[in-house]
Design a protein that fits this description.
- The complex is a heterodimer of chains A (207) and B (208).
- Chain A has 207 residues and is α/β, with parallel strands linked by helices.
- Helices cover 21% and strands 20% of the residues of chain A.
- Chain A has 5 helices and 10 strands, in the order E-H-E-E-H-H-E-E-E-E-E-E-E-H-H.
- In chain A, strand 1 (3-7), helix 1 and strand 2 (28-31) form a beta-alpha-beta unit.
- Chain A is globular, with a radius of gyration of 16 Å.
- The relative contact order of chain A is 0.19.
- With 208 residues, chain B is α/β, with parallel strands linked by helices.
- Chain B is built from 5 helices and 12 strands.
- Chain B has helices spanning 15-23, 53-56, 60-68, 117-121, 187-196, and strands at residues 4-8, 27-30, 44-47, 72-76, 91-92, 103-105, 122-123, 126-127, 133-134, 142-147, 155-159, 165-169.
- The longest helix of chain B is centred in the C-terminal third of the chain and has 10 residues, at 187-196.
- In chain B, 45% of the residues are buried.
- Classes of the chains: A alpha/beta (207), B alpha/beta (208).
Chain lengths: 207, 208
């Protein structure tokens, strides 16, 4: 899987992309304002890193749609308003539960969605748990990998809503990992990126 | 031309800070909507931590001109692109445990009057919001805050020999605490007070 890192130019994108432990997973780096005009012929997967300027991605909306139409994979990490530049994404904002773990008996509000999904061979639910930035409606035919306790999704895998495949999440690991500030986000990337590089197998091998 | 330019990032937008800027007649613009000319003729430029530093590289020359002309630059974040010739890139602290993230004051500055280091070290009981490393201080810079454990110079102010002044905060935007019920909430308004007062250098540190 040839993965292009879509880079918003921030310090946390720079740190994530250049992390020696993660650099091997990315084959290319595209500055987000240049995405609309980029040559994506040699790219199989667009990794749209967390916390981007939605304006840049909206400007690339047609290029992203063409990329999907060619049967390729778009990974939309959180806090970039994927609902504004991908079809069929419904995101609902919510109060961010920043310090939930400090309450006694606290619940993150997250649950395993499809336990047989391929991603769970690489990460556990705790690796996908820090705080919530809203939630998503799982499109018909898509697989919700991490659910919220009230039936929405924070990470889903959608090969049903049209050509190509979309992995959409509210999680923003690149921001936290690139800020050296959330061990779970680092663990998430250490599991998610090799899974992605191996072709993002949707089912666990034992399934 | 309005004298103070706040260069907005696209996340962690803080309506309360934007309101403060507007109340003082200061301008807030997205980096995507700025051209070189917009950086000139300012007495102070404020840059958010989540800024697209890669795009800021396109404006290196006018940022240098701004400083050469005696302007003040307030920069937040981990400096990872060579936007400023004289500055070295960010270095993360060696340790990530609570004791590695305790902040201590080295030198007083009006921006941080009445701000307790406890409120910088901990935010709702969690350490690390304020800084986890530093952009190295150039020779002659006055270090304001550092990590107690390894001495990383989190905040410093530098009278640049070629002109101008940089107030550096090597972490998340230092006015993000505006709505917090802690002494850290003073940073935002006191920063703007200091700029309105002409961003005076510390006594004994007037530079050239």
């Amino acid at each position: 899987m040839r993965i292009a890192f879509v880079d918003g130019g921030t310090y946390y994108h720079h740190a994530t992309f250049n992390d020696p432990a993660l650099r091997r997973y990315f084959d290319d780096n595209i500055h987000a304002p240049a995405l609309a005009r980029a040559d994506l012929a040699q790219v199989d997967c667009l990794y749209v890193a967390s916390r981007q300027n939605p304006v840049d991605l909206i400007a690339a909306r047609d290029a992203i749609a063409d990329f999907l139409a060619a049967g390729k994979l778009v990974v939309a990490l959180g806090e970039s308003r994927a609902d504004l530049w991908l079809d069929d994404v419904q995101w609902r904002p919510g109060e961010v539960n920043f310090w939930w773990w400090r309450e006694p008996g606290a619940d993150s509000g997250l649950r395993v969605g499809d336990a047989g999904h391929g991603l769970f061979e690489r990460i556990s639910l705790t690796d996908a748990t820090w705080h919530r930035h809203g939630d998503l409606v799982t499109p018909p035919g898509a697989v919700s990998v991490v659910n919220t306790v009230d039936g929405q999704s924070v990470l889903y895998d959608d090969a049903a809503s049209g050509p190509g495949r979309r992995i959409v999440t509210t999680l923003d690991p690149c921001y936290h990992h690139g800020s050296y500030f959330m061990p779970a986000a680092s663990r998430f990337l250490h599991g998610f990126l090799p899974w992605l590089k191996d072709g993002a197998p949707a089912r666990a091998a034992s399934d | 031309m309005n004298n103070v330019l706040h260069v907005r990032a696209i996340s962690h937008e803080l309506p309360a800070f934007t309101a403060l800027l507007q109340a003082r007649g200061m301008v807030s613009r997205s980096l995507r909507n700025l051209c070189d000319a917009d950086f000139l003729g300012r007495r102070a430029i404020l840059i958010e931590a989540h800024i697209d530093q890669r795009t800021l590289m396109d404006h290196r020359a006018v940022l240098r001109t701004h400083l050469d002309a005696g302007g003040t630059l307030v920069f937040n974040g981990h400096l990872v692109y060579p936007i400023f010739d004289e500055l070295a890139p960010y270095r993360v602290a060696a340790g990530r445990s609570v004791k590695d993230l305790i902040v201590e004051r080295v030198h007083a500055h009006p921006v941080f009057d009445g701000v307790s280091c406890d409120d910088l070290s901990f935010r709702r009981g969690v350490a690390g919001f304020y800084g986890r490393g530093a952009n190295p201080a150039p020779p002659g810079a006055v270090v304001l805050h550092r990590l107690q454990e390894d001495g990383s110079p989190l905040d410093w102010v530098w009278q640049r020999p070629a002109g101008g002044q940089i107030l550096m905060h090597g972490g998340n935007t230092c006015w993000m605490y505006l709505d917090d019920a802690s002494s850290a909430a003073r940073i935002g308004p006191q920063l703007l007070d200091w700029i309105e007062a002409g961003a005076p250098a510390l006594p004994g540190n007037q530079g050239e």
